[in-house]
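Let's practice the habit of predicting before peeking. Look at the sequence and jot down your guess about where helices and strands might fall. Then scroll down.
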Amino acid sequence: MSDQPVLLITGASSGIGAATARNAAQAGWRLVLAARSEDKLAALAEELGGDEQAVALRCDVTEWDDQQAAVSRALDSFGRLDASYANAGFGASRGFLEESVEHWRSMVDTNVYGCALSIRAALGHFREQNAGHMLLTGSVAGRKALPGSLYSATKWAVTAMGESLRAEVADTPIRVTLIEPGMVDTPFFDEPKENALQADDIARSVIYALSQPAHVDVNEILIRPVNQAG
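Done guessing? Here is the structure:
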């Protein structure tokens, strides 16, 4: 078994997930790339070295079988799983009279239930090996209530899951990191955002947390563009 560590990323086909994959590959990680966009995933996996370094797997994070399959793929392909990054998620317009109720349901399922399933899928393996690192994409919106934002409520839930998981594994070497971006210019938004962070800025914070010695647990990284007020 190679000494190269293995990182599983959900929502890996674009934005923060893809940027994290590229940065992690440069830092010496092998990767399991999970998302619903198979074509983008396959191209990214090939870019990062193909099957020996990065494997692509279609994954709907709201499906338990898909989440389990992603962890199994890591173990089958690389013989290990050292870290899992629950990054998949999307937003909605502010206002409780905005968006369709179907959009709301899908967002809550992905951002909250999907994140919980990612934790559940990796945690059993981490407990068996008595080591591992779970990372979650939260948000500045998960630290303060935004007017009319159900999205904000989903990210408050992610913040709570990070804290709850950390308390659950407090008697183990398992680490938990909550990544909390401010405004990032990614496909999350319909229009380009000026003066926003880039996906690569968030990816570097993920690599920072992953690269710490085993006795260091970076609990939270809150990262905003300069002068973002909220």
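How did you do? The first helix runs from residue 15 to 26.
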